[in-house]
Amino acid sequence: MTTPTLDRDRLSQQLKDLEAKALQAIAEASTLDTLEQLRVAYLGKKGELSQILALMGKLPPSDRPTIGTLANTLKEKLLQELEARRETLKAEKIAAQLAAESLDVTLPGVYRPQGHIHPLNSTIDRILDIFVGLGYTVANGPEMETDYYNFEALNTPADHPARDMQDTFYLPDGNLLRTHTSSVQIRYMELNDPPIRIVAPGRCYRRDAEDATHAAVFHQIEILAVDEGLTFTDLKGTVTTFLAELFGDVPIRFRASYFPFTEPSAEVDVQWQGRWLEVMGCGMVHPAVLKNVGYDPEIYSGFAAGFGVERFAMVLHQIDDIRRFYTSDLRFLQQF
């Protein structure tokens, strides 16, 4: 039984019809997805061109090269048209996207006022820069503290009269809101061996009646240095250098004072606008505090100092009322 043969002209006509149909469909394709579907329909493994080529086996051997050449030429032509149409559609898509996202530069812009650092934050940053320049490391701790870290470890037991100096916010669970950042010193010393030099900024809380110079919530910065052979002279030199960097060349004085966690203790005044102004408390770390964190006071000594950020900011910016820092009055804040 012989295999039926096809007429070469008939197969050639099928290729011409496919070419006309495919070129028209490609030209009318409006999306990249449609174009990909046409490529698969005409040139894929199961596409129309492949189906026509599958009939070449029924041609006489002498006609096959002719049909093969026509088929390859058609395939190259369709691939070129597909690529050209693809580039056109991409360009149209980009142009449409640009048109949809274009801005009318003639419209007035939306004004948003520029933000600025709050005067308290800028004062903290300025102070920290000074102490970091002196070799101190910034340390932080929790604002909700235990009685041990806030008082006991700082040589202030439950019956100590110095607790009356700091009217404390106690919480229902027995904890409290820290009254000073001295608790950071204890936490840091527990985890680190001497020598240490830290500066501890943070928010503190006391039951103070609010007036022009007092607030229930305020900011404090404390420094601590512990090493072998530190003396009050080192403390005095550090404090003097710091105040000179912050206020310039102003007279300062040290007055004897009392704090349970330092001995001897002192308060520091600066002469400001013709009067003495207290700016910080300081002293040599009490031996009992060193023992509480496992340091040997026969080997190590240290000094500490603490001050309120609000007081320094009021002096630096000539502000008469501490409450101005917390009212969020733009007329006040825009000055900075």
Query: Count of DSSP E strands?
Result: 9
Task: Record the strand order, biggest sheet.
Answer: 1-4-5-9-8-7-6
**SSE-based structural type:** alpha+beta
Tell me the overall shape. Answer: elongated
H/E element order: HHHHHEEHEHEEHEEEHEHH
Number of helices: 11
Q: What's the CATH topology label of the largest domain?
A: BirA Bifunctional Protein, domain 2
Span of the ends, CA to CA: 104 Å
Q: Supply the number of structural domains.
A: 2
Mean pLDDT, to the nearest integer, reads 87
Low-confidence residue ranges:
none
Give a verbal description of the structure:
- With 336 residues, the chain is α+β, with helices and mostly antiparallel strands.
- It contains eleven helices and nine strands.
- The radius of gyration is 42 Å and the shape is elongated.
- Helix 1 (8-28) runs parallel beside helix 4 and helix 5 (119-133) crosses helix 10 (309-317).
- It has two domains: 8-101; 119-333, BirA Bifunctional Protein, domain 2.
- The longest helix has 38 residues, at 64-101.
